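Worked Example 4.2. Consider the chain below.
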Amino acid sequence: MQPAFRKIVIFGVGLIGGSFALALRKAGVVGEVVGFGRSQATLEEAQSLGIIDRIGSDVAAEVGDADLVLLATPVAQMGELFARIAPHLGSHTLVTDGGSTKCDVVAAARSQLADKIAQFVPGHPIAGAEKSGASAAMADLYQGKKVVLAPLPENLPASVACVRQAWEACGANVMELTPEEHDGVFAAVSHLPHLLSFALVHDLAQRDNKDLLLSFAASGFRDFTRIAASSPEMWRDISLANRDALLQEVKRYTDELNVIHQALQYNDAAKLEEIFSVARAVRSTWTQQ
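Applying the procedure from the previous section yields the following structure tokens:
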């Protein structure tokens, strides 16, 4: 029986792109997977691991008859990729992405895809790990995880349904937001936490007694700073791509820290307990959902 996706082309065959390919293979819904990337070594590793069938050499030939193209690269690279694939997209070929920001990616797509913009359905899988590269790819990475689609006004319902089908075949729960809603939400619950984690570790790294401090760091520090082991390049791009929304969240967090600073300064036990109690209640309810 013909698979739902005869041919898929993936730009970036690491954790996100590689796991997408492996999950679709496991579900039996893809015929052939072709991979492109910046590193020949990574592409060869992906092929040896069974993530891709072939290493792509000619973008024009590969995207012209593909059913789906996934851009799974840092968001700063997507504008150039849109420009590369735009002249060669087949009339039935859909494009989606795995970028952590959406407004900037949509703007790049509109600029480069032009009259083919209807073929691009923006997406963002809410799954990942600190490890990267083809060897980090897992067939079950998306199982039970959320994937956000941010459909454009130009998208046909059938196009959105097709991309949704691919992610649901990976085991994901697919939801929809506008690009603006997406960037506002993830500035608060993803991008800001990464910024804070990087900032705390960077602060300690500059201290003369950093080795002493880290020698006593235990589970609390480990949990809070786990995401500081993430890709600096990727999070640089995400932070700048979602700069406006992230600046608002940094300001809100700074205001919150100022309230705590004032409570400490004036020995205000009641205020501290109020803040901690509200936070504990919300965190406890969230973990039970």
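The CA atoms of residues 21 and 51 lie 6 Å apart. Strands lie at 5-11, 30-36, 54-55, 68-71, 94-97, 120-121, 123-125, 146-149, 173-176. Compare this with Example 4.1 before moving on.
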